[in-house]
């Protein structure tokens, strides 16, 4: 019997994306079908994806709610069954999906994502166009109120699983918004959605969901410590028996160097020499000249303190002075953007920087760089290192979260055994990152050893096969199937 799953999320690739959350929601929407799970994704119809309304069918008309008219449209697109929340007063606006044109959170984000959780709960309880979900899967704080609304409503309700993609973002709002959100004041307690006098969407979800997952085994353990729990470690310790760490995967079709249309040259683990064409294309894009013999390091990332890229700014000059090259694609805090621009100005023939994001360029950089840096201070799972390994780019990562779970360090024993897939360093300091970069330079000089690491990474399981089955098992256990 096929299990019916409602996935509730604020973003979903390939439609709307600000980070890895979208990639995971989009991938799960497709891959769980192979495990006898029929998934529909409930997603706000932002202005950025308004074109998806074309050809969509109205599945539910809520009337006026949360300040304006609300309806739900259904459409299948890119292999995903979408339920699109058409609420123009909340979603039809410029700027980013969470931020206004000044880069500040929309003042009514509590309503915008309160509606997402409320609709998730309503569809869970009453169904939509004759379709009734067996399980609800809520993602991050934006969907955190779905299990809260389910609990406070009368009558039967399906079980709910909540996934923490990044606990640093919690959806905390003034207690005065409780009434407009339609929340029962009885839930404003230490064991409910109250968090230091505010409403916390994420805490509400953590206390009311039937099961909690996060995106790697190590991050699941880290979340129960003060260093990584961001004030919610006590809540998670209390729910320890219901918390699972399940590694994210990547889309093995979208990320396939043998067929990727964004590459200058396709290749496989048996034709690694062809990567040189992509390396030259990356160098050309950044205006760095024709020499492909020097090691090319890269960063493809949001520029933030979490990502540890201030450490990269400190560590990179030493290897650049030894002949290495470096390219960066990303955007974030003005200080880090300025810092990398200054690095490029200091090393104009060795460093290329592009502030912003370009999906095709990200693919090309994974296919053309020799190594990629992921020096995060914390990293729930990380997808960059998975894509890097798939493309034969050697990841250099800090020992935290999913980075620790997915990369096998090229220490002496691993090199001798022929099983290394990248380089790790700890603790997360500029000095230790610099030592890892030096190690990478030394191994790169041994082409046989370097290519063995590349091929190991390309063979490493980075898809959804195992994790999708684990998620399907959780859904079936919750549904009593």
Automatic annotation (TrEMBL):
Listed Pfam families: Glyco_transf_5, Glycos_transf_1
Enzyme class: transferase
Domain called Starch synthase catalytic: residue spans: 4-236
GO CC aspect terms: cytosol
Gene Ontology biological-process annotations: glycogen biosynthetic process
Keyword Transferase: yes
Binding site for ADP-alpha-D-glucose: 17
SUPFAM superfamilies: UDP-Glycosyltransferase/glycogen phosphorylase (SSF53756)
Keyword Transferase: yes
Gene Ontology MF, one: alpha-1,4-glucan glucosyltransferase (UDP-glucose donor) activity
Transmembrane segments: none
InterPro entries: Glyco_trans_1 (IPR001296), GS/SS (IPR011835), Starch_synth_cat_dom (IPR013534)
Family in the record: Belongs to the glycosyltransferase 1 family. Bacterial/plant glycogen synthase subfamily.
NCBIfam families: glgA, PRK00654.1-2
Protein's job: Synthesizes alpha-1,4-glucan chains using ADP-glucose.
Name this protein carries in UniProt: Glycogen synthase
Source species: Aliiroseovarius sediminilitoris
């Amino acid at each position: 019997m096929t299990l019916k799953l409602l996935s509730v999320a604020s973003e979903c690739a390939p439609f709307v994306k600000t980070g890895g959350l979208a990639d995971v929601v989009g991938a799960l929407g497709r891959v769980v079908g192979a495990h006898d799970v029929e998934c529909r994704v409930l997603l706000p119809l932002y202005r950025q994806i308004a074109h998806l309304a074309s050809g969509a069918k109205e599945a539910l008309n809520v009337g006026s709610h949360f300040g304006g008219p609300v309806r739900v449209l259904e459409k299948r697109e890119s292999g995903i069954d979408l339920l699109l929340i058409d609420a123009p007063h909340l979603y039809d606006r410029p700027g980013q999906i969470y931020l206004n044109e000044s880069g500040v959170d929309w003042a009514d984000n509590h309503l915008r994502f309160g509606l997402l959780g409320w609709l998730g709960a309503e569809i869970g309880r009453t169904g939509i166009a004759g379709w009734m979900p067996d399980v609800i899967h809520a993602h991050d704080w934006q969907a955190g109120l779905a299990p809260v609304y389910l609990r406070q409503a009368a009558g039967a309700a399906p079980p709910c699983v909540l996934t923490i993609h990044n606990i640093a973002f919690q959806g905390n709002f003034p207690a005065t918004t409780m009434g407009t959100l339609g929340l029962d004041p009885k839930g404003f307690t230490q064991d409910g959605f109250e968090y230091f006098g505010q409403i916390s969407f994420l805490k509400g979800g953590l206390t009311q969901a039937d099961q909690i997952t996060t995106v790697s085994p190590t991050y699941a353990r880290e979340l129960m410590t003060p260093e990584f729990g961001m004030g919610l470690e006590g809540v998670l310790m209390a729910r320890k028996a219901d918390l699972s760490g399940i590694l994210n995967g990547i889309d093995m079709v979208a990320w396939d160097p043998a067929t990727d249309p964004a590459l200058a040259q396709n290749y496989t683990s048996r034709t690694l020499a062809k990567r040189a064409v992509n390396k030259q294309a990356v160098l050309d894009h950044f205006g760095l000249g024709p020499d492909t013999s020097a090691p090319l390091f890269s960063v493809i990332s949001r520029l933030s303190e979490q990502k540890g890229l201030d450490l990269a700014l400190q560590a990179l000059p030493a290897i650049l002075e030894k002949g290495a090259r470096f390219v960066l694609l990303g955007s974030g805090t003005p200080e880090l953007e300025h810092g990398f621009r200054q690095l490029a100005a200091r090393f104009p023939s060795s460093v290329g920087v592009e502030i912003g994001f370009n999906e095709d360029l990200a693919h090309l950089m994974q296919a053309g760089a020799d190594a990629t840096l992921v020096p995060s201070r914390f990293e729930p799972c990380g997808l960059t290192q998975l894509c890097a390994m798939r493309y034969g780019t050697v990841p250099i990562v800090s020992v935290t979260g999913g980075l620790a779970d997915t990369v096998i360090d090229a220490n002496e024993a691993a090199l001798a055994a022929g099983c290394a897939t990248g380089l790790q360093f700890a603790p997360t300091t500029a000095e230790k990152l610099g030592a890892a970069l030096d190690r990478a330079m030394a191994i790169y000089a041994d082409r046989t050893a370097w290519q063995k690491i590349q091929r190991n990474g390309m063979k490493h399981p980075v898809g959804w096969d195992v994790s999708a089955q684990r998620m399907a098992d959780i859904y079936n256990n919750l549904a009593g199937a």
